[in-house]
What we know:
The structure holds 2 protein chains of 2 kinds. By secondary structure, chain A is mostly helical. In chain A, about 80% of the residues lie in helices and about 0% in strands. Chain A has helices at about 5-35, 40-50, 55-75, 75-85, 85-110, 115-140, 160-190, 190-225, 225-230, 235-255, 260-280, 290-295, 300-325, and strands at about 285, 290. A two-stranded antiparallel ribbon of chain A has the order 1-2. In chain A, α1 runs antiparallel to α3 and α5 (about 85-110) packs antiparallel against α6. The radius of gyration of chain A is 20 Å and the shape is globular. By secondary structure, chain B is mainly alpha-helical. Chain B is built from 12 helices and 8 strands. In chain B, β1 (about 160-165) and β2 (about 170) form a beta hairpin. The chains are: A mainly alpha, B mainly alpha. The interface between A and B is large, with 89 and 87 residues. One protoporphyrin IX containing FE (HEM) sits at the interface of chains B and A. CIS-heme D hydroxychlorin gamma-spirolactone (HDD) binds next to α4, α6, α7, α10 and α11 of chain B.
Amino acid sequence: MSSADAVAGVLWVGVSLYAVFAGADFGAGFWGLVAGGGERGRRARELVDWAIGPVWEANHVWLIFVLVVLWTAFSEAFGSIFSTLFIPLSLAALGIVLRGSGFAFHHSARRLRGRLFAERLFGVSSLLTPFFLGTVIGAVASGRVPVGNAEGDPVTSWLNPLSLLVGVLFVATCAYLAAVFLVSDARRAEAPDLEEYFRARALGAALVAGGLAVAGILVMHADARYIYDGLTHEGLPLVILSGVCGLGALVLLRRAAPRGARPLAVGAVVAVVWGWGVAQYPYLLPQKLTVAAGAAPSATLTAVLIVFGAAVVLVLPALALLYTLVQRSMIEETEL
Amino acid sequence: MSNVLPIASALEAARSQMAFTLGFHIVLASLGVAFPAMMLIANYRGLRHDDADAMLLARRWSKVAAVTFAVGAVTGTVLSFEFGLLWPAFTAKFGEVFGILFAIEGIFFFLEAIFIAIYIFGWKRLPGWAHFWTGVPIVLSGIGGAFSVVAVNSWMNQPRGYTLSHGDVTKVEPLKVIFNPAVPYEVPHMLLAAYMVTGFLVASVYAVGMLRGRRDRLHRLGLLIPLTVAAIATPIQLGVGDTAARAIANDQPVKFAGMECVQHTSTHVTEYLGGRCTADGVKGGIGIPGLDSFLIGFSTDTKVTGLDSVPADDRPPANTMLHWAFDAMVGIGTALMGLALWLGLTWLRRRDIPRSHWFLRATAVSGVAAIAAMECGWIVTEVGRQPWVVYNVMRTENAATGASGVWVTFTVALLLYTVLGIATVVTLRTMARRWREEDSQDEDGGDEPYGPRPSAPAALSGGPG
Ligand code: HDD
Ligand code: HEM
Ligand code: HEM
């Protein structure tokens, strides 16, 4: 394996972690948005709040990680993607600003009238960001991003059936992951009614996401043949693994055994992320720019790998500490 | 004029958006770098000397930091996007060089985000000293993070450690990139600026409170801790700034000529305070003959490079603005030095802050002044580097995106950040008002720190089943 491949692997680790952690986070925002008024809705929203609180920030650093690795190791691909897909990426950034602000203010301004507005904002932007990031992935996968500064079509590159479908799929996947996570959070908070509430939603979201995934593969057959071929050949084991995990999670959820459902749901998402990576390999931009051709000089790649090693040594224990403290309720939301 | 307020192409929009979003982020970033240190000083005092007021300050400051940190993270994420959205050609070409520094920064961001979450949300349940120690990594990673980002900017000023062939980067030497020649003065200068901005800003809040008659111990301590930190940073900052100016005169002589309005390369160059830069020298302003030469070489015989050393379109725009920005930074720095001395001397004489109302008034404006100095410094650095994004290597016009629509995103950014800024201030003021009410009722809102650990959030469990 070349060091370019190794860095691509690092990038993919980052993408997977972002998909899981931020995905669950976006999804939680989604459930907060659709929880509605009334006593039940209020308590569901409270659970969402309580669960996201301390880990919100850390989850989102994964996006920074992905962006930085991409622009450092594969600068040309980064420049090409960000210039051609200026519109959806600007909208995703807008979503991130709105979401972060909504979060910052609804936590601190408890007694402000703006609280409800901030919550709405948080929910809506939880939809925006994954949707537009999905359209970006759809555009890249279907080979609509040529190499160069804004060389691709600024509109049709991401406003096409495949991109839109992937966008919706992202939202559904986030909702699914979040619901599964919230089932365990509700158990931790000793709120059996909410456990039931989110179990039903997890099942529903699983069916929607699964259906969209199948539809996506069909559209790829027509529109992103390279990826389709990859997914049905080299990537097939991972696609199957993802399906098995997804189904397994469904079964466990129905049996009210949420403990195993969580890793399985994560597995389903991670497997599909890697399936996509394998399908796209050796291309960064399918059929336009390969990993090898797009990679930075070797000293840079080595530096990225060293930094990644340092991150594993330094950041993982710290993250483990954070999540452990959260799981043991040693740290939690207080009134600001 | 069109150089000062560019209103034509995507390039100008991109420059305006970058300047605006960076100028916004840097204020929150400064708080992110330096506020945790002040929090910990108060926390340490609280634990060590069983000082309830200091403890209360630490807790309240950490709640303020929760808000400013979130806004800082949001605006920082936008900046990361902007490297692609606004400057894809710059990043596509040199990302593989300067990106290493951002990768290092990633580690610090992670650690900072993780430990700030633990610290902010850990008040209730963690044991006192353990909680204190979870704050220490925040301070260290703030310094490390600032080093990494600012070093990127230093690299843009003094690009080193790469080889170009046929316009492509073919070889990178990471250590030369990381420790480029501008790092030794730019990084400390920015770190000190962060401590000054935060120190004076926090102190100014308490100074306003004291001017309004709230002269309890809490306010005194709230003023004294940050103001002391800032007062220590200020003289060092002036020294570092002076070193920076001399280094610039040497390494980026055209930037220096721009900010000092030196038209022709010569010796015995006059230093002007204020005035208007024109092609035939400075109009108005106070001139001190020979001082400019003296400042950069300790002798009036020192030769100063003038703008005429390079063709007209390699010179920075808006020289008058550059010159004023530089003078404003130095002027404010000097004034803040006066404030620091006032505090220091009074403290040495009678272990107390100066009693004069004027001291409180000066402190009350010092926060805004420090921010102004910092923004001016960045204008000098960034506008002074123009027309280059990478000094003498890549022009800004070749760095910008080919996408259209930057005017739209710039407009949205203007509106959004205005609302964001207002919301931040309103939120913080609401928190402050609530705390004042608590103080006057002499109660604590029931959240004593370091208490026992309940089993589940009371609001959630045992609801309707
Ligand atoms: C509280 C803020 C503050 C104060 C009081 C000062 N500065 Fe400053 N200055 C900054 C905050 C700042 C800054 C915003 O942080 C900059 C922008 C880039 C950098 O590294 O620091 C800066 C840049 C900057 C530069 C340009 C560096 C470059 O282009 O690379 C010079 C020459 C100076 N400063 C010189 C001074 C002098 C001579 C000062 C006082 C005697 C001074 N500064 C006080
Ligand atoms: C360390 C961090 C920073 C980096 C890496 C950075 C990078 C950049 C880049 C890439 C540009 C666009 C290209 C150019 O105009 O040269 C730019 C422009 C600019 N930045 Fe910075 N910047 C940093 C910090 C700041 C801060 C904190 C400010 C605060 C105000 C600032 C003010 C500006 C301004 C005013 C411009 C526009 C200059 C012009 O085009 O006339 N920068 N910066
Ligand atoms: C172009 C320049 C810059 C970029 C791309 C950038 C990027 C970012 C990003 C992505 C974050 C969010 C990290 C998180 O989620 O925790 C952030 C926050 C932060 N940035 Fe910047 N930044 C820039 C300039 C600066 C400068 C000049 C400083 C200098 C001192 C700085 C210091 C910080 C700090 C301390 C934080 C932590 C959040 C906070 O406390 O507000 N950044 N920045």
